[in-house]
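Sample entry copied in:
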Amino acid sequence: MNKIVADELGQILSLVTDPADRKSASQVCKGWWLTEGLSRSSLLVLNLDHLPRLLTRYPNLTTFETQRAVSNADLALVAQSCPKLEAFILDHLSFADEPIETSSG
């Protein structure tokens, strides 16, 4: 029996759109777990204590969402870890550190 290579597995997982089904698929074996993490484009984080570990598993995120207060350090970590990030959704608009300065222009 031939092994499924990572590219083929990524193509299969791209057809799985339901989050519960993707979670189930990632539990099949380590290869599926790794590929699911690499192919995930969006993530809702409920516990920011796990943020460093989560961002290591999901390096290709384009959308990051959280319902928790976010510190400047957390924002910096997400920015550094997710170079493809296009959307940062804050459902809870409070920051734990000093306000972020913005420039207009």
About this structure: The first strand starts at residue 42 and ends at 45. Strands lie at 42-45, 63-66, 87-90. The mean pLDDT is 80.
